Structures are given as structure tokens and as C-alpha cells.
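sry for the spam today, last one i promise. C-alpha cells for design, 901 residues
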């Protein structure tokens, strides 16, 4: 080959890519120019889609070259690998670690702030220790870091190549973070093969397939473009049949075309028709078995070194590859030189394959026994280097099962590390592989237990299967058997199988000796039974719970859990609130949750603290309820629990503000809770609570249309979930239907709710106000029935005894009583609500009283009540009530000939 031919050899795949380059330039300029000019910069998402060898990597390289022309532009780059897609946060670490490595530890901690302990392990800058991390919290921590980097290093470009091989955790983060790009000076560029998108991350599939994100599709080169490449490398004398055959052999694939032309240069092939028949043989050497044959021609040592590099896959250390290949450093250096010359490897201190197609072909060519041995050596090397079991786990997953107890322990340790960084799926893979080893017989049950726990938050059905298997084996230690049963019941509950959740703990309870463990199972049984919407035997269950819990003093956590459930059940049944709060107070220590029953304690879960706070909220102990749920928000945020737990905490805080009458604050917390819940997927129990409370709040604000929109958005209505909702969902649905003027539907819904609740003795008029709404609905046609319903509600409220319950029942019953009873009843309601912490209910009573006084001809008294009610309604955010008060004040002024103020 002549020197002139060497100089003409094509070195890129950007031929016939003018439109793609223009789109790339527009995206880079649009970001960088605006930042340079001090204008608000909007980021975006740029997608490159194309088959293997279509030139995606070359286009990303051109993007990086463009970005380098702008002062201050930061480009963070990652390239995925087929053999590293099981490594959690592999892409994220490739993207961010170079920037983080340039900082001091103090700078990293300052940049991440409170997110350091949460996201640091996933980023590889903090050890993976501690309890399992919430994947959503880890993603939020990475969001924070990238946002800070975008704001302080603008403009910022994140480029990810071969995303179809990305790890599930990183792709989930990319998909979730993409929605924020429009608010940041950040461009995210992702290249992928459309036919190889991973099934493990549907959110990423949705991202690249969304109608609003149209990818730049890289098509094959035309025959004309291939001819240009051929003549640029081999000379203008290359004839048309030769050029056409190059195109036919490669199909216009840029990588294969470039490689074929390069081989023709190396062979000194004459670019004429008579040489065209040799092109197919040369083309075969660029891929598959042909490439393997070409590799083997380099010699046994070079082949073995390439195998080692393929096993290591990414960020290949020459020294580590030499160790896997069983050769000296000098021999390894010689092999690396030969592989670079053959355009198989590139790089010096860190090696990588020239193209993923080569890496895949070489890895598949490694004999299975050799590949397994090399993976074992790689795992040993990584562990000895102090990189941890998780780093070695991707190699351990490839080792053949052989009953190795040490390997089982390494995989269990890797699973714990994966859980600590927020990668439960990776932990499950390690534990499943440990089971296949298999573990020693006396450890199998424990591995199954760990496997079940690893999937508790991500896949309740998987947890159920594994924990049932663990409990069926005799080898599960006694201390784990109670915990496994408790977690199994949680998984059933999370899977909307409340009856099964209650049954499984009841069965285990029979075989558990007296003590805290047995009482823990009893508490779980009463919890799952007590929150069933359609519970059978509710009266008997409440009687047994009262008999068991009433004598307890709260000496340990099991007793405290039983007391919390007894207080909650008594509150739902509408028993004496003084007794209810006395039971609830025994749960706390010095007014606070015991440390062993904190919001993030895994032994009891967040359900027990939740029922304590809910009980206080419905018994007018709102200060304590607010303190508890504020503590929940703080605890979950500090621990990085940013999923269902934090959503529930916001929703329950919203409930407290609703009970206080701070309707604007309630709406804010509830919308935030639903926003957090929406990230987890549709149809979850948490969305029922949030939707129910938000609809109730919007109705209290007088915003009926907004309430209807929320209800339609979340399909709020029958069929209802098997678990109780706060407040009672059918009662709120009936209230909404009544507000929308759909009276007949409201009556049917409220009657059904009433039958269900009365059968089970659930008579709390604040949690389930069905009777008062039904009374209002039937009053025009059945006034006597309406009065009977209202009187029953008043009696139930009196039995419960809080000022809010009594005041609300009296106020609302005044709408259906005889005319001469209206003012006395409203006067009684005012007396109670004046002492109540619920300011919006007091405002409603003032306005109702003012309206009644006006109708009775007592205008002076009416005006005072209406104006006081108006001021309070406005403070509470009760817009509809305030509007009513203004109208009444205006009517009063008109009647007296006074100007309206």
C-alpha cells in the first residue's frame, strides 16, 4: 500500500451525514450561544437512532468536537457495554465520576449537601454500607447533583453511547431526569440501536419512543456515498463495479464500509472490477467468524489477551487483562500493540475495543470453559483490589454453579451492597444466582428470605413467592421466622391481598411462643384485618382487640403496636375520644415515637406510626399529629426514602391541615403527595388516599370543578380498593356527586356506604360523614328520613365527643331540622366549634348562623356573624364559603339601603 493510499484511508463515518450534523450543531449552538450571551438557556434531549455501525459513535464524537469550540462547555460522556449492563449505575458513574474525581472530598460533600449519604454510594464516592436505599431517593439525589452541575458549569452536555446496553438503574434515572431538561442549561444526547432496546426499563423505551422526542435516524449510506469513500481512500481510478460491490457487501453500513475499504488498502487491492470478487471475503473478516479468524491469525497470545479484554468489557486495565490471560506485563504490552495495529483494540492506559461489534464477536468467541474461568479470575482480582463484592458480582454471575459456599457468601454480600446503593433488581440477580450455586442446605432458607426482602418494594408477588418458600423450609433461624412472616404479610398487603396478609400471620402466630414475637404477629393480624373495607367479623375482631390491648401499658414495642391499633380501631368505630387518646398516648415515650418504632424502622414499617398520627388527627389532637407527620417527612427525606413513604407523609400532613381548616396548605401538601405517588405508577393505594383527601379539600374550598377533574384523572370511584381510605372514599364520592348535582347517584353511593359501615360498626362521623350528606340529599323528598339520619349522626358524634365532631354534626344537621330548631342547633354548633382546632368548620358555622339570623329578621346579629365568618373563611382558603358570606352581606346591605362594603 502506498503512502498516498494510507493518507487517503477514511477515518470517520460522517459521510452523507450533513443533515444529522446540522441538527447536532443546532442543538449545541442553541445551548452554548444562549449561555454565552447571558440569556436563559433551555436544554433538551437529542436522540441518535441507528443499527450497529451506522455511525452513532462518530456523530457523538463530532458533537464533542463542536462543544469543545465553546468556552466553558462541559461534556460528560459514557459508553455502555453489553457485558456491563448488570452493573448498577454504570452509566451514571461513567458520566459523573470524572468530574467528581477532580474535586476534593470536601467539595463533593458540599456539592451534594444532604444528598451525599443517599446518592454517594450509587455514584461510587461513598462506601455502600447501611440499610437498603430507596431507588427513588437515589435518583432524586443524582437529579440534585446534575442540576447543580448544570447551573454551575453551564452549558453542560451529557452524552451516552450505546444506551441499549445500559444498566437498568442508570436508564431509569435518564428517563426520569429527562422531564427536567427544559428548565436547565443542559443537553442530553443518547445514542441507541432501536431494535435492541432493553426490556428491563420500560420508562426508557417510552422516553425514546415518545411522540415528542423524534430521534435523528442514521440510515445506511447510499451507493454514491460509498463510492466517494472508496475513491477518497483508493484513488479516483476506482471503477463503478468495484465501488458498487463495496456497497453491496456492506449494505452501506458506515462502519463495515470503512473497515472493508481499510482492508482493501492493507491488501493493496486494485480498485477495479476484477478485484471485486475478493471483497466478500474481506468483508467477512470484519465481523463474526471472519473477525475471529483474523484475530486468531495474530497468534495464541494476542487472541487470549483479546479474550481477557472482552471479559473485562469496560475500562480495561492492561495489567488486569494480562493477569486474566496468564501472561507477563511485557508479553501483554506486545499483544496490545498487535491488537491496536489490527484495529481491534485502542487506548494505552485503559483499553477498549475499536467498535462494540468487535467486542461482541470476541466475547462470543471465547470458549465457555475459558470464559467462565476468566470471569472467576476477574472477580477474584476485583475483590483483592478492595473494590468490593458488588464490583465483582457481574463476573460471579457468569461462573458455573459448583456448590461453592464462599461464592454464595460473596453473592450475598454483593446483594447487600447493591441494596445499599438503591439497586434491588441487581441484588435479586445476585441472590438468585446464589440459590443456583446452590448454598449449603442450612443456609438456603436464609438466602430465600434475603431474596424476598430485596424485592419487597419493587415486586410484592416476587417477595411472596420467595418468603413462602423460605418459611416452608426448616432451616430458617427462629429470629428470622417472625420477621419473614411479618414481611410476607406486608407483601400481601402491598399486593392488595389483605385477607391473605391477615391469614398468614394468624397461622404463624399459632406456632409462635408467647412473647414480643407472637404479639408482633398478632399486631400484624389486627392491622390487616382492621383496614379491610369489606371486613367480615369486624365486631368480634374489635372485641378481641380491645380485650387484648386495653390492659397493656406499652412496656415494649409489641405492646405499643397493639395499643396503636386498638386506638385506631376505637377511633374508626367512634368510641369515646378521651379513651381513644388515652390509649394512643401509651404508644409514645415523652410525647415521641420510641426509636425502635421510628418512621424508618424496618421491623414495624411505617404503618404503626401512621395509625398513631391518623388517630390524633381525628381526635382533635392536631398538634401531635402535625408533629408526627412533620417528623415523618424529615425522616424519609434524610434517609432518602423518596417514594411511597414520602408521598404518604405529605398526604397525611395534608390531612392534618384539612382537619385544621388550613385548606390552602392542605391542598399544597396533597398535590405534592400525589406528584410523588405518580412517579411510582398508576392505581396504587397511596393515590387513593391522596385523591380522596384532595377531592375533600377542594370541595371544602368550594372548587367543585377542580374536584371533579381530580376525580376523573385518578378514576376516583367504584370499584374501591380492598383497604380503607382516609377519609372513607365512598362517603367522599357521594359528597362529590351531590356537589355536582347528581343527586340520585349520590344517594345510591351514600346508602351503599352507610350499609357497609353500619354493618361493621364504623361510626366516626368525621372519617365517614355519609349520613349527614345523605340527609341533605334526601331532605327535599324525604324530610323525616333526613332528620332521622341527621339525628343518628349527632348521637354518634356525641358518643365520640370531640368538639369538631359535635360541632360539625350539629351544624350540618341544622339544614334538615324543623325551622324553629335551626338557630338553637347552630348556636350549639358554634359553642363546640369555637373550641375546635378546625377553623374552616367554625367559619362555616358562623356563616350558616348569620344566614339563619338574617332569615329570622335579626339583621344586626347576622351581619356580625357573616363578617366574622367571611374573614375566617378567607384566612382558611374556603373560597366558596367566602363567596357565600359576601353575597349574604351584600343582600343585607341592600335590604337596609346601605352601600355594600
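last one done:
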Amino acid at each position: 500500500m502506498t503512502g498516498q493510499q494510507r493518507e487517503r484511508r477514511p477515518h470517520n463515518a460522517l459521510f452523507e451525514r450533513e443533515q444529522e450534523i446540522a441538527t447536532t450543531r443546532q442543538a449545541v449552538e442553541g445551548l452554548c450561544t444562549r449561555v454565552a450571551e447571558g440569556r436563559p438557556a433551555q436544554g433538551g434531549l437529542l436522540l441518535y437512532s441507528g443499527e450497529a455501525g451506522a455511525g452513532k459513535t462518530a456523530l457523538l464524537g463530532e458533537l464533542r468536537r463542536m462543544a469543545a469550540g465553546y468556552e466553558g462547555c462541559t461534556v460528560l460522556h459514557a459508553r455502555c457495554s453489553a457485558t456491563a449492563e448488570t452493573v448498577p449505575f454504570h452509566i451514571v458513574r461513567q458520566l459523573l465520576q470524572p468530574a467528581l474525581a477532580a474535586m476534593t472530598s470536601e467539595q463533593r460533600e458540599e456539592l451534594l449537601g444532604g444528598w451525599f449519604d443517599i446518592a454517594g454510594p450509587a455514584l461510587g464516592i461513598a462506601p455502600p454500607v447501611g440499610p437498603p436505599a430507596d431507588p427513588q431517593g437515589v435518583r432524586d439525589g443524582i437529579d440534585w447533583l446534575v442540576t447543580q452541575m448544570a447551573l454551575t458549569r453551564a452549558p453542560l452536555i451529557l452524552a451516552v453511547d450505546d444506551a441499549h446496553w445500559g444498566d437498568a438503574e442508570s436508564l431509569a434515572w435518564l428517563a426520569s431526569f429527562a422531564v427536567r431538561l427544559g428548565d436547565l442549561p443542559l443537553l442530553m444526547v443518547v445514542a441507541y440501536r432501536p431494535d435492541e432496546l432493553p426490556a428491563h426499563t420500560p420508562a426508557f423505551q417510552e422516553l425514546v419512543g415518545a411522540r415528542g422526542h423524534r430521534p435523528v435516524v442514521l440510515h445506511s449510506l447510499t451507493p454514491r456515498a460509498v463510492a466517494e469513500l472508496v475513491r477518497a481512500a483508493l484513488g479516483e481510478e476506482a471503477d463503478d463495479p468495484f465501488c458498487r460491490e463495496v456497497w453491496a457487501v456492506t449494505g452501506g453500513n458506515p462502519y463495515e464500509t470503512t473497515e472493508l475499504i481499510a482492508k482493501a488498502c492493507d491488501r493493496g487491492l486494485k480498485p477495479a472490477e476484477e478485484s471485486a470478487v475478493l471483497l466478500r471475503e474481506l468483508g467477512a473478516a470484519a465481523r463474526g467468524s471472519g473477525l475471529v479468524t483474523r484475530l486468531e491469525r495474530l497468534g495464541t497470545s494476542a487472541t487470549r489477551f483479546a479474550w481477557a479484554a472482552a471479559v473485562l468489557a469496560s475500562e480495561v486495565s492492561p495489567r488486569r487483562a494480562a493477569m486474566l490471560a496468564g501472561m507477563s506485563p511485557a508479553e501483554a504490552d506486545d499483544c496490545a500493540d498487535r491488537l491496536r495495529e489490527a484495529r481491534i483494540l485502542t487506548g494505552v492506559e485503559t483499553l477498549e475495543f475499536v467498535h462494540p461489534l468487535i467486542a461482541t464477536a470476541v466475547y462470543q468467541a471465547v470458549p465457555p470453559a475459558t470464559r467462565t474461568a476468566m470471569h472467576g479470575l476477574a472477580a477474584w482480582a476485583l475483590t483483592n483490589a478492595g473494590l468490593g463484592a458488588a464490583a465483582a458480582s457481574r463476573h460471579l454471575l457468569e461462573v458455573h454453579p459448583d456448590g461453592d459456599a464462599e461464592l454464595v457468601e460473596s453473592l450475598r454480600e454483593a446483594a447487600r451492597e447493591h441494596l445499599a446503593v438503591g439497586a434491588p433488581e441487581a441484588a435479586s440477580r445476585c441472590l438468585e444466582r446464589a440459590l443456583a450455586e446452590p448454598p449449603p442446605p442450612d443456609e438456603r432458607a436464609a438466602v430465600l428470605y434475603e431474596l424476598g426482602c430485596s424485592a419487597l418494594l419493587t415486586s410484592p408477588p416476587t417477595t411472596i413467592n420467595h418468603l413462602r418458600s423460605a418459611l416452608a423450609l426448616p432451616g430458617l433461624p427462629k429470629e428470622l421466622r417472625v420477621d419473614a412472616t411479618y414481611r410476607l404479610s406486608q407483601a400481601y398487603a402491598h399486593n392488595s391481598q389483605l385477607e391473605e396478609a391477615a391469614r398468614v400471620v394468624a397461622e404463624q402466630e399459632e406456632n409462635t411462643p408467647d412473647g414480643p414475637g407472637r404479639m408482633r404477629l398478632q399486631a400484624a393480624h389486627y392491622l390487616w384485618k382492621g383496614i379491610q373495607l369489606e371486613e367480615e367479623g369486624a365486631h368480634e375482631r374489635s372485641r378481641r382487640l380491645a380485650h387484648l390491648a386495653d390492659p397493656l401499658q406499652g412496656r415494649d414495642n409489641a405492646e405499643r403496636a397493639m395499643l396503636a391499633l386498638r386506638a385506631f380501631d376505637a377511633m374508626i368505630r367512634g368510641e369515646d375520644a378521651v379513651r381513644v387518646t388515652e390509649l394512643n398516648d401509651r404508644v409514645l415515650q415523652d410525647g415521641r415515637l420510641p426509636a425502635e418504632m421510628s418512621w424508618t424502622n424496618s421491623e414495624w414499617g411505617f404503618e404503626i406510626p401512621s395509625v398513631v398520627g391518623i388517630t390524633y388527627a381525628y381526635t382533635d389532637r392536631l398538634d401531635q399529629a402535625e408533629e408526627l407527620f412533620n417528623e415523618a417527612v424529615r425522616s424519609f427525606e434524610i434517609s432518602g426514602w423518596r417514594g411511597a413513604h414520602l408521598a404518604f407523609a405529605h398526604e397525611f400532613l395534608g390531612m392534618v391541615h384539612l382537619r385544621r381548616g388550613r385548606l390552602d396548605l392542605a391542598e399544597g401538601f396533597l398535590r405534592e403527595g400525589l406528584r410523588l405517588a405518580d412517579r411510582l405508577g398508576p392505581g396504587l393505594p397511596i393515590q387513593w388516599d391522596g385523591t380522596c383527601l384532595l377531592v375533600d379539600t377542594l370541595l371544602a374550598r368550594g372548587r367543585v370543578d377542580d374536584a371533579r377533574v381530580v376525580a376523573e384523572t385518578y378514576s376516583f370511584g367504584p370499584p374501591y380498593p380492598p383497604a380503607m381510605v382516609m377519609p372513607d372514599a365512598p362517603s367522599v364520592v357521594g359528597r362529590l356527586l351531590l356537589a355536582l348535582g347528581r343527586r340520585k347517584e349520590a344517594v345510591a353511593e351514600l346508602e351503599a356506604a352507610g350499609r357497609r359501615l353500619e354493618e361493621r360498626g364504623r361510626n366516626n362521623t368525621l372519617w365517614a360523614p355519609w349520613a349527614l350528606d345523605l340527609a341533605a340529599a334526601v331532605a327535599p323528598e324525604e324530610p323525616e328520613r333526613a332528620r332521622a339520619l341527621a339525628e343518628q349522626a349527632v348521637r354518634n358524634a356525641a358518643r365520640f365527643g370531640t368538639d369538631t365532631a359535635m360541632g360539625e354534626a350539629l351544624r350540618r344537621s341544622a339544614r334538615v331540622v324543623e325551622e324553629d330548631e335551626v338557630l338553637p342547633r347552630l348556636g350549639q354548633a358554634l359553642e363546640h366549634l369555637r373550641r375546635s382546632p378546625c377553623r374552616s368548620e367554625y367559619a362555616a358555622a358562623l356563616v350558616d348562623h348569620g344566614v339563619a339570623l338574617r332569615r329570622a329578621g335579626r339583621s344586626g346579629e347576622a351581619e356580625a356573624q357573616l363578617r366574622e365568618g367571611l374573614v375566617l373563611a378567607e384566612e382558611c382558603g374556603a373560597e366558596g364559603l367566602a363567596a357565600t358570606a359576601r353575597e349574604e352581606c351584600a343582600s343585607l346591605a341592600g335590604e337596609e339601603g346601605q352601600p355594600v362594603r
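The CA atoms of residues 4 and 233 lie 9 Å apart. ok im logging off now
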